[in-house]
Amino acid sequence: MVNSNANALGIIFPNSYDALVPELVNVRLMASIPFASRYRLIDFILSSMTHSGIDNISVMVNNNYHSLMDHLDSGREWDLVRKNGGLHIFPPFAEKESKPYVGRVTALANILDFLRDEKEKYVIMTDTNVVVNFDFNAMLQAHIESGADVTIAYNEQELPESVFTYQSNDKGFYYTFDLDGTRVKKIYVNPRTHGVLNFAMNIFIIEREMLIDMVNTAFVRGQEYFERDVLLPQLNKLNVQAYKYDGYVARISDMKSYFDENMKLLDDYNLDALFSGPPIYTKIRDDNPTRYIEGAKVQNVMSADGCVIEGEVENSVIFRGVRIAKGAKVKNCILMQDTVIESGANVEYLITDKNVVITAGKEMKGTDTFPVYIAKFQQV
Amino acid sequence: MAKEMIAMLLAGGQGSRLYALTEKLAKPAVPFGGKYRIIDFPLSNCVNSGIDTVGILTQYQPLELNEYIGNGQPWDLDRLYGGVHVLPPYQKASGSDWYKGTANAIYQNISFIERYDPKYVIILSGDQICKQDYSDFLNFHKEKDAEFSVAVMEVPWEEAPRFGLMVADETDKITEFQEKPKNPKSNLASMGIYIFNWDILKKYLEEDEADPKSENDFGNNIIPNLLRDNRRMYAYHFSGYWKDVGTISSLWEANMEVLDPEHSGINLFDEDWKIYSRNSGMTGHKISAGAEVENSMITDGCRIKGTVKHSILFAGVKIAEGAVVEDAVIMGGTTIRSGAVVKHCIVAENVTIGENAVVGAMPSGDENGVATIGAGITIGENAVVGPNAMVKNNIEGGEEQW
Asked: Tag placement on chain B: N or C end, fewer CB within 10 Å?
């Protein structure tokens, strides 16, 4: 058969790191958080997989996944309506043994029968809090050439400020590693180290058969976390390779980074870095183009379709269907879908969730270190 | 299962009066309104009216149009039974025929229509911008117990001689048809949108085909024959926005009217009557610090650093610092370099306009031409394109075309 596909299937964990952005996942999960004016976080991983020829993708939803189901629908926008493979959404309780999971091990244990039946030689696992236009083929190639048992992608970056204020580990685990060449020598769980680190992006490649064995063994032992409980104790035994990713990475680690990573895309350099690769697909809304009416003043703004702008907007990211009335002032804001800023309102450092209304004449200001978040459907 | 009504969309027009825009493109595929193509309007009207089966009759330069329609999914017309079908002329055992006329195009696809066993067939035109509920039209057709109905628009009497006119009595029954008459007896212009009872249409198509002298045209042959036989023919008054965009100036004008929905009547911001299109898949548009954007429509993929006034930009247009765009229609993928001045014109897809080039001019006195630049053209630095120019070939730096 002509080899137009990668010999790998994808498994996506859309709930990973939900706890980092509690406000944003109140009505959704990490994967369906709006980003960059017209996307959801999962669009980046899904599109990257599609472009890498991975067309058998499983999404292991755990909770709060209604918005994601709505977004993904049949998977058509990502070309994932396939007779063989395509998009599979595995909700908890899909079978009598499958329960909501805590870590990857239980999640994978829930779908072992499925994994056994598939044909692809390799499995690629990812979370969705890392925004990348990623070439999975290049990583798969590196994995095969290195003869690794497991390959983990990482980038060099500092830890987000917020981790240094954590009092406990209840926001989940993040990992950094020490390397010997490209081999992972040591894995740190929730380190609090300053400076540039080898920060795991939680993109893994492993042979399917090996993964099934690992999950079987770990599950019997009551283990939960693939990195902490499976890889970390076996670093001497397993050849775990690190794959350095030099491309553009936007990592959502807290509200601050969510705000900053959106804002960074107002810089053309960053925008090109993230989007100059193959296109990122998303759900189509069939909005009309955005209309700028006489009197609109717009400076340094990224906007999707379907908006009507009559007021002043500066340094902001505007999602689909936003209305900014005459005399309104918007500065340093992220306005999600269908936000309405009525006339004379004056807002700064705001993150409005979907369908928020800021009524006429209201003034609301956050600061650059603490943007104010307004929940879905709230009227101010 | 029979369909109540299916649509046949005439999309074979060459659109020769759009010159540079239709050199490699069928007229219905011409971009319109920032992210649409002309054919999105009748297709969206169909699906919004509940019509789920559409045959598209193509002939001239069909490649891009065929690719655009694809399986019909953007219009929700990918159906197991019905959906959208592109119907080009095809080879038969006894030779192949181009579509000789509008009626002949339908005649050659009688077997397609019969697969759906419809009671009614609506004939649509692929070169108009119009938002119309065809189900209202069908209700009218049924209430009148008509065999043939035609949608008509009232036009100013002085313009009436440019149209095919329906003369109707007070019950809207058509008594006479005048094709571009010198002395109009009516100001009801045919919109070229017809509903037929299928049995009647089939009978008249077969009769028309048997007549070697016929031009096989609805206006010139089928309608006169129906009148001759005193068929039950009615005129359905439509009063919404309707525009034939068959010329450069009317295409430009219709685009400008999109910018003023409050007065022009063409509102693309209608949640209840969405116009669907195939998506560019580009990222959100970006307006840089220092840019000036006023009274314009801008869509995905655009990067604006210069000045844009009263213009429509399609997906992926780039306007550099210091460039000025006014009263212009700039189609997808076009780049306008710094210092260029682009006014009162239509620039087709993937054009590059060099630094400090001048394209078109605002109207002054009797001079109100719409400069037009064809797809893929490069206009060199400091080149000048006059307001009446029709640019089909690259213009070198510093040169002029008027």
From this structure: N
Q: Are B137 and B193 in contact (CB under 8 A)?
A: yes
Beta pairing partners, A86: A56
From CA A28, how far away is CA A70, in angstroms rounded? 11
Both tokens assigned to A66? 């209604």
Instruction: Tell whether A210 lies on the interface with B, counting CB pairs under 8 A.
Output: no
* Cβ pair B287:A300 closer than 8 A: yes
Residues A291, B274: C-beta atoms closer than 8 Å: no
Q: From B314, which residue of chain A is nearest by alpha-carbon distance?
A: A289
Contacts of A317 in chain B (CB under 8 A): 284
Q: What residues of chain B lie within 8 A of the CB of A292, using their CB?
A: 293-298
- CA B328 → CA A99, A126, B15, B37, distances in Å? 59, 46, 21, 17
Characterise A38 by phi-psi region: left (phi > 0), alpha (psi -120 to 50), beta (else). alpha
Is 90 exceeded by the pLDDT of residue A321? yes
A/B interface, count of CB pairs below 8 Å: 98
pTM of the model: 0.92
Report residue A304 as tokens: 């999707």
* Token representation of residue A89: 């959404």
CB atoms within 10 A of CB A300: 19
CA distance B282 to chain A (A): 7
pLDDT of A168 over the 80 cut: no
Note the pLDDT tens digit of each residue in A41-57.
999 999 999 999 999 99
The ipTM estimated for the assembled molecules is 0.90
Other CB atoms within 10 A of residue B4 CB: 13
Single-letter amino acid, residue B207: E
Give the DSSP letter of residue A281.
P
Percent of the residues in chain B that have a pLDDT greater than 70, as a whole number: 99
A47, A269, A299, A305: best mutation site toward chain B, by most B Cβ within 10 Å?
Answer: A305
The neighbour count for residue B391, using CB atoms within 10 Å, is: 23
Q: What is the distance between the alpha carbons of residues B402 and A57, in angstroms, rounded to a whole number?
A: 57
User: Which of these, B189, B181, B144, B138, lies nearest to B165 by C-alpha position?
Assistant: B189
pLDDT in tens, A219-230: 999 999 999 999
Which residues of B are less than 8 Å from A284 in CB distance? 74, 279
Segment 30-59 of chain A within 8 Å of chain B by CB: 36-39
Angstroms from B222 CA to nearest CA on chain A:
38
